[in-house]
Amino acid sequence: MDMLLFELQKNSATPLYEQLYESIKEAIISTKIPLGSKLPSKRKLAQFLSISQTTVELAYGQLLAEGYISTKPRVGFFVEDLESIPLVETSVATPLSPQQQPQWRYSFHPGKVDSTHFPFTAWRKYAKDIFDVSSKELLSLGDAQGELALRTEIAHYLYQSRGITCDAAQIVIGSGTEQLLPIIMRLLGDDARFAVENPGYSAIPRIHMKQVIPIAIDDDGLRVEELANTAANVVYVTPSHQFPTGAVLSMKRRAKLLKWANAQAERYIIEDDYDSEFRYIGKPISALCGLDQNNKVIYISTFTKSLMPSLRVAYVVLPPQLVLAYRNMFNYYSCTVPRFDQHILANFMHDGHFARHLNRMRTIYRKKHDVLIESLQRYTSRVTVFGEHAGMHILIRLQHDKSEQQLKALAQAHAIEIFALSDYAFTTEQQKTPTLLLGFGDLDEQAIPQAVDMLMAAWSIKKD
Ligand SMILES: Cc1ncc(COP(=O)(O)O)c(C=O)c1O
């Protein structure tokens, strides 16, 4: 073949042999050097390019090692058959355009929390304190279950506020309910058959990817008697504040549900207590887990509503028998929440800031909740409120000839974000009366009446 003419930069920081190796490799890949062709001898190429023979030797050696060329003793070097060469194609993939986030004038998203009253000053103090050389041991991996300091604070909080007696050793910390659920599912085994509330939180069906059994909800929460007629052995419930209908699981049903679980060894209840901190009338509803005498409840909760969704801290309280299984199965695992973040939160809780923050936020959310309900009272002839007095959203039933999805689209066309009850349904039957969720977490209290008026105008609903 012709002599190889490559432009090599003698003053470059890249060694000459590497430049030569890259140039030949590129020529082989782009088939500028035909397959099977013989490369010039080391001596000839060195002479031609005015470089040392050692440079050529190093470049050929690298090409040989990577399989771009082969050598026949006393004959020379040959370009390998391309088929056996890992071709690096410079593909011109269609660039993915960044996802456009719609700009809402008002958002009734039920997952949004207040963004104006976060205690930045206190949080910053704990963050500043922990990022110090005195915490250098936090640079290495910590306990897979999460930092003991944080688990201790959580156990204390659960005892004080949720009526749950548990040991820090039963707690596993992870970066969200959705990140902890796969762990619970693995602990329960491949044969577990899940029942979920319908409508309900979609995490289980999305993560599980197998058929789940939907169980209807009424004013008293999950219809436990229906559960008993299914093949399910695990049920996912939100007893304190059913998501999304807001129903509270009645005491009678709680007892029934625990009885159902006790009837068979492989039965479990997963209790999701996601926003139980916020109740605006009466006493807080205690957790189902606190009533469980037989280690049948796997309790899961999160700081998403009580602090912020972006914190990514949630936790599970495992019954003792599952703690041992967890330790065996997940002994390779690392906690998904950074240790520093866990200590910031633990210290924040330890010094009473979390309890103070919850009290403050309860008042703020209660006000927003009340203003929202008052604003809706101007439309009572066509709008009925339910699922109120807790959490960060309420529901409205509408006298309207349009479907839920049509109403949602109308609101969106007016730059209002809203969700329909059917967005959370696992079955397709239509609601007789269109029902929508109104989240108020991050709405400005002063703006709520105007947001409601605009929403009603979008639906052509006039004031009473
Ligand atoms: C029922 C329910 N559980 C849990 C969560 C929280 O999930 P995560 O801890 O992954 O933020 C949500 C989300 O807002 C929810 O609606």
What this model shows, in words?
By secondary structure, the chain is an alpha/beta fold. The chain has three domains: 16-84, Winged helix-like DNA-binding domain superfamily/Winged helix DNA-binding domain (Arc Repressor Mutant, subunit A, Orthogonal Bundle), CATH 1.10.10; 134-354, Type I PLP-dependent aspartate aminotransferase-like (Major domain) (Aspartate Aminotransferase, domain 2, 3-Layer(aba) Sandwich), CATH 3.40.640.10; 356-458, Aspartate Aminotransferase, domain 1. It is 35% helix and 14% strand. The chain has 14 helices and 16 strands. The protein has helices at 16-29, 42-49, 53-65, 120-130, 148-162, 177-188, 203-208, 224-227, 251-262, 320-329, 339-350, 353-376, 404-413, 448-458; strands at residues 69-72, 76-79, 106-107, 171-174, 194-198, 213-218, 221-222, 234-237, 268-272, 297-302, 314-317, 383-386, 393-398, 416-417, 419-420, 435-439. An eight-stranded mixed sheet has the order 4-11-10-9-8-5-6-7, sandwiched between helices. A hairpin with a 6-residue loop joins strand 12 and strand 13. The longest helix is centred in the last third of the chain and has 24 residues, at 353-376. The chain is elongated, with a radius of gyration of 31 Å. The N and C termini lie far apart (92 Å). Residues 111, 176-178, 201, 238, 243, 272, 274, 302, 304, 309, 314 line the site of pyridoxal-5'-phosphate.
